[in-house]
Design brief:
With 300 residues, this protein is α/β, with parallel strands linked by helices. The chain folds into two domains: 12-37 and 155-298, Rossmann fold (3-Layer(aba) Sandwich); 42-151, Rossmann fold (3-Layer(aba) Sandwich). Helix content is 38%, strand content 16%. The protein contains twelve helices and ten strands. It has helices at residues 18-23, 42-56, 71-83, 105-112, 122-125, 131-140, 154-158, 161-170, 185-193, 213-220, 243-256, 265-277, and strands at 12-14, 26-30, 62-66, 87-92, 115-120, 145-146, 176-181, 199-204, 227-230, 286-290. It has a six-stranded mixed sheet. Strands 5-4-3-6 form a four-stranded parallel sheet. α4 links the parallel β4 and β5 (115-120). The longest helix is centred in the first third of the chain and has 15 residues, at 42-56. It is globular and about 60 Å long. Bound molecules: pyridoxal-5'-phosphate. Pyridoxal-5'-phosphate is lined by residues 41-42, 71-72, 150, 152, 180-187, 261, 264, 292-294. Pyridoxal-5'-phosphate (PLP) is lined by residues 41-42, 71-72, 150, 152, 180-187, 261, 264, 292-294.
Length: 300
């Protein structure tokens, strides 16, 4: 990925299922998992304008934050590797410093792409929101462009304008879009550029995610209310799951031959299925399931 790399149009794949016919709805998957092998899905959109900004500011190193399963960590490392830039990841969990056995495929991949890690205990990791600590890091790494956890900031949000443009061209009259939520940056970006007649449904992959709402509205930058956050489909919490989610994932993957990641898109499909089974949808709805990638985290 170079900062001025042309945007590729990913497929919008229509799903055929008798249950959709019975409900009178049409359903597609936006295959943004196919936009890049390593900087996949929403990550591509969130990083693109940030990389441009770093370049314009003469910074050629990225420093960011994440948990052991953060696809953002893997994507940042890969984007820097492609450009020959160093990258630094501040990772939650000081136990990982000595226990390499516990490293996720995501961390291993980021390391292969040259990311240097600093492992933090939980209280220190909370400092990532404190400006004084961020200023201190900036002094320690003067050439680094600091990206928040999950890569979510205003430039990341702006990166989704092109996704909405593609969707409006690919599917006239779509009414609803479902996306997975970690920090809410992608949901904010999709809602910001969608019209008020299009509803963006975010499916939180973590527990008690209501606290994200003010930040999401803030990123949208207006009082636009074309979005909802669904907080009851996390399956036990971030990076956790349950037998129902695992079953729905397997069914979806074998029915449509579309791979899902267990942390984000599996919960998105679980939420969509639950709403379908409880007759939540109205005839005439044209629904898009946004595949945000994350598949690189599934391989070791
Ligand atoms: C595959 C995938 N989908 C969705 C998300 C959630 O994105 P956001 O943090 O913008 O809510 C992430 C976040 O890391 C992700 O990796």
């Amino acid at each position: 990925m170079t900062s001025n790399q042309a945007e590729i149009t990913t497929p919008l794949q229509k799903l055929a299922d008798k249950r959709f016919e019975q409900a009178g709805i049409e359903v597609w998957v936006k295959r943004d998992d196919l936009n890049h092998p390593l900087i996949q899905g929403n990550k591509w959109h969130k990083l693109r304008l940030n990389l441009q900004q770093a370049e314009q500011q003469g910074q050629s190193q990225l420093l960011t934050f994440g948990g052991a399963y953060s696809n953002h960590i893997a994507a940042t490392a890969a984007a820097c590797y492609e450009r020959g830039w160093p990258s630094i990841g501040f990772i939650r969990g000081d136990e990982l410093a000595t226990n390499h056995q516990a490293w996720s495929p995501t961390l291993k991949q980021a390391q292969r792409h040259g990311m240097q890690f600093e492992f933090l205990d939980r209280p220190s990791y909370r400092l990532r929101h404190h400006q004084a600590w961020l200023d201190h890091l900036q002094q320690r790494f003067p050439n680094a462009y600091l990206l928040p956890e999950g890569g979510s900031n205003e430039l990341a949000v702006a990166g989704f304008e092109s996704v909405i443009k593609q969707l409006n061209q690919q599917c006239k009259g779509w009414t609803d879009l479902f996306c997975a939520v970690g920090t809410g940056g992608s949901l904010a970006g999709l809602a910001k550029y969608a019209s008020i007649n299009q509803t963006i449904w975010g499916v939180a992959s973590l527990k008690n995610a209501d606290y994200l709402k003010p930040q999401i509205q803030n990123w949208i930058g207006s009082s636009k209310q074309n979005w909802r956050l669904l907080t009851e489909f996390h399956g036990g919490g971030y990076a956790k799951s349950n037998s129902e989610i695992v079953l729905k994932t397997k069914q979806f993957e074998s029915q449509f031959q579309i791979p899902l990641d267990p942390i984000y898109t599996a919960k998105l499909i679980f939420a969509f299925n639950t709403l379908l089974e409880t007759n939540h949808f109205k005839s005439g709805q044209k629904i898009i399931l946004y595949h945000s990638g994350g598949l690189q985290g599934c391989a070791d």
